[in-house]
Write a structure and sequence with these properties.
8-stranded antiparallel beta sheet, about 200 residues, globular, Jelly Rolls, mainly beta, single chain, about 45% strand
């Protein structure tokens, strides 16, 4: 093996983790803590209120909000309860985990990289690599609140798949690499946006 190949990032594989090691169903309060507020139970994250320790002159375009989950080796389903999108774009979905962490792509937008999938309830699109890969899906009529569920099929040693479920409509199933490890996440475009996690289920394959 060359020195270059040893230093190149690679996708994290389920075989590197114990089957029970899937993290915890809560938002990561340690990431982007100068911008995000996580509830005491860890289930709700909000951009704001403004933190005194944030000293930059301008806010970023997008604020990433990762969870503490790393899902693999099973079937999973959970719901993002978008409690406030403030009539602006918002993204909920997931990323593949690399051995060096997730690839958020540019500006922290979930769906900017080739290893991230984001549902945008303002437009009804699933976005990957900054492009819509499925459109014409349900939107949130009031442009403020609604629910998006994610379904994952993650074999430990075979290819997996994922889909979104919105207002009773399920998207196509998107293929995932063999032994994928998944990080559920969101991204915020506007201060006051808020998302909660609910109804987490895990079942064997």
């Amino acid at each position: 093996m060359s020195e270059e190949s040893r230093t190149q990032p690679s996708l994290l594989e389920a075989s590197a983790l114990a089957e029970s090691d899937i993290g915890t169903f809560e938002w990561d309060r340690e990431q982007y803590a100068d911008l995000l507020t996580v509830s005491a139970d860890g289930r709700t994250v909000e951009w704001g209120p403004r933190k005194p320790e944030y000293t930059a002159k301008y806010y970023p375009v997008w604020v990433p909000a990762p969870t503490r989950l790393r899902l693999h080796s099973g079937r999973f389903q959970w719901t993002f309860e978008v409690e406030e999108m403030a009539e602006a774009q918002i993204g909920v979905g997931f990323l593949l985990l690399w051995d060096v962490g997730p690839d958020w792509g540019f500006y922290g937008y979930l769906g900017a990289s080739s290893t991230a999938w984001s549902y945008d309830p303002s437009t009804g699109d699933v976005v990957r690599s900054t492009r819509s890969i499925q459109s014409g899906l349900p939107t949130f009529a009031n442009r403020r609140s609604g629910e998006v569920s994610v379904r994952l099929h993650l074999p430990r040693n075979a290819e997996g798949s994922a889909s979104f479920l919105v207002d009773g409509v399920e998207t196509q199933r998107f293929p995932l690499p063999t032994g994928a490890v998944i990080l559920p996440a969101a991204c915020f475009l506007k201060e006051s946006q808020r998302v909660s996690l609910s109804r987490f289920e895990r079942s064997p394959l």
